[in-house]
Amino acid sequence: MSERTAGDLASAAAKAADAANGGGNWRLAGIAGTAIGVLAAGAAAGVAIERLTVGRGMRKKARLALDSAGPYGALRGTPGTAVADDGTELYFEVDDVDPETGAGAPRRRRLFGRKAPAPVTVVFSHGYCLSQDSWHFQRAALRGLVRTVFWDQRSHGRSARGAAQQGPDGVPVSIDQLGRDLRAVIDEAAPEGPIVLVGHSMGGMTMMALAGHCPELVRDRVVGAAFVGSSSGKLGEVSFGLPVAGVNAVRRVLPGVLKALGSQTELVERGRRATADLFAGLIKRYSFSSKDVDPAVARFAERLIEGTPIDVVAEFYPAFTEHDKSDALPVFMEIPVLVLAGDRDLVTPSSHSEAIADLLPDSELVIVPDAGHLVMLEHPEAVTDRLADLLVRVGAVPAATNVGSYGSTAQPGS
């Protein structure tokens, strides 16, 4: 991607911010546009060599080939819908335990007709601009062994757009709302029995909000929890790998920029398609750290993020600077907790996971080397192994259970 393209993006960002502020904040808008341009230029540099040697048509064909051949995100379960307190329909899928090989099967057979206790259910919550399919590897490894629920956060994936956010009187999305959404999913998909909560990034924040909103549910039913690349607060201090002055300028006006862009969805989506290489560079920079990421996995991450409309990106962004759930974390104090992060995560740095672990001193802290924000896709074996250990600790699966492959060979419809 050329420097001109990056500069055009910066200019567009400045103009959008200027429009969002009625033209009165043009100086800050220009500063932010310049800072965004620096970021865009960094991504452009990442694809410059490829552009010198590979034509646009060839790159497009390669993306199409990866889309058709890659199995990622193809796993499906039994669908269901929960209704949030504002009427938003939340989509989820359940993978049930294999009655012959799943955890607890021998014990259930010994009950001789008596009603078996409800099995442990593992509820997976995904992150910002992703969907339940971001857990592909963990889902492939655990399916049939333990009952799992995967759901799409409001306005993401197959869930409906947030009802409370629609119309001129729409209210901003809050992490507290997401916690209430998770409660609705649990009530519908896992109304009884013990629960293990697993959340990546925003999904982990959703779990914290649930604990703040329904501490009795966590104390009574949650037997284990895993926070993957998440944060309990102070996200306004994250630099995203940018110079401090640049990121501060961006932070001041980015909500206005996103709001303006969100009001021109069709135009922005066309721009996304036209600058696919630039977005691929940005996504790779902020999703992964290792240089040898499977191209099909990288393309899968692109598809997940590209699938989030720009107005949804704009709706959710302000919630993160307001997020502070440190006071809710002690609700998880009495259960086994896994806290895991990539050591080179630029979105929710590993120091944020260390802060969570400090508030939960009995938790297991795992920092995965050479890993970025999408650690569950970049190093699935590390994440799945630690999750399996947690599930053994809470009795969700027997100690001898072999979680098998991590999903890299899963076929569509399997």
What does this protein structure show overall?
It is globular and about 55 Å long. It contains 16 helices and eight strands. The protein is of the alpha/beta class and about 425 residues long. The chain has two domains: about 5-55 and about 240-320, no CATH class; about 80-235 and about 325-395, Rossmann fold (3-Layer(aba) Sandwich), CATH 3.40.50.1820. The chain has an eight-stranded mixed sheet with strand order 1-2-4-3-5-6-7-8, sandwiched between helices. Helix 1 (about 5-20) packs across helix 9 (about 245-260) and helix 2 (about 25-55) crosses helix 11 (about 275-285). GO terms for molecular function: hydrolase activity. It comes from Streptomyces niveus (Streptomyces spheroides). InterPro entries: AB_hydrolase, AB_hydrolase_1, AB_hydrolase_fold.
Outline of the structure:
The chain has helices at 3-20, 26-53, 56-69, 105-109, 136-142, 175-189, 202-213, 215-221, 244-262, 265-274, 276-287, 295-306, 310-322, 350-359, 375-378, 380-393; strands spanning 78-83, 89-95, 121-125, 147-151, 195-200, 222-228, 337-342, 364-368.
Question: Characteristics of this structure?
Answer:
414 residues; alpha/beta; Rossmann fold; 2 domains; 8-stranded mixed β-sheet; 8 strands; 48% helix; disordered N terminus; disordered C terminus; hydrolase
Could you outline the blueprint of secondary structure elements for this entry?
Blueprint: H1 3-20, H2 26-53, H3 56-69, E1 78-83, E2 89-95, H4 105-109, E3 121-125, H5 136-142, E4 147-151, H6 175-189, E5 195-200, H7 202-213, H8 215-221, E6 222-228, H9 244-262, H10 265-274, H11 276-287, H12 295-306, H13 310-322, E7 337-342, H14 350-359, E8 364-368, H15 375-378, H16 380-393
Parallel strand pairs: 3-4, 3-5, 5-6, 6-7, 7-8
Antiparallel strand pairs: 1-2, 2-4
Transmembrane segments: 28-49
Keywords: Hydrolase, Membrane, Transmembrane, Transmembrane helix
Pfam families: Abhydrolase_6
